Predict the structure.
Amino acid sequence: MQGQNNEEAAPFKNFIDSANKLMFIIVEFVIDLTPFAVLSLIANAVSAYGVAELVPLLGILALAYILCAIQMFIIDGALIQIVGGLNALKFFRGFLQQRDCRWRL
């Protein structure tokens, strides 16, 4: 009886697998186009408001990068060392090596 249920469910499973593959293709397409969309939005904002109006946003962008670095290296590093019992410097070195390998593929 169990084998018969698997055979009856095969078309539905194939449909779900195909829908999953299609969703991954669509998501990859959207992710690939995201930088162009951001560039066009920035160009639209510069043309509408001028560069002088958008310069203060650079301070907010710099602050966001600084806070991300503090979060990653100080707070996460402390948690890695305290909770995980790992040396944070060795962890980040290994993390950077893995990231480099991923982008080279």
